[in-house]
Amino acid sequence: MPVRKNKNWLSSKIIALVSFIILIFFGVNLTREFLAGEQLDENVDSLKDEMSGLESKNKELNDLIGYLNTTDFIEQEARSKLNLQKPGERIIIVPSSTEAALPVTLTDNSVESVKTDEKSVDASIVVGSNPNRWLKYFFKN
Q: Which of 10, 18, 91, 115 has its CA 20 to 30 A from that of 1?
């Protein structure tokens, strides 16, 4: 009978060792799966944030498209870029503050250079009729 006790004791150590190895294996795999799940949750949250940002940008762009298709915008662009006007309407162009501040005195068929505090500006306005300017251009008298 003593031999039988040794075999039970030996078999219980082997079973305990195998059980411990299996427990470690399942514990490591469970930990890996838990960490992978956490990483997936973080990715899902970041993608949801990105999606909400893209949805708000999409809404802004749709609002802009809606505004660009209105007749008010089309009329404004036609007036500013194509210089169109309604019948009976007069356009008044107001010079900018730098153009209005330049003192320019012109005589017949003259071109002057005007000096300001910051820079020198050429006033390339030639007074005279168109045929006289062409004659001066070709013959330079």
A: 18
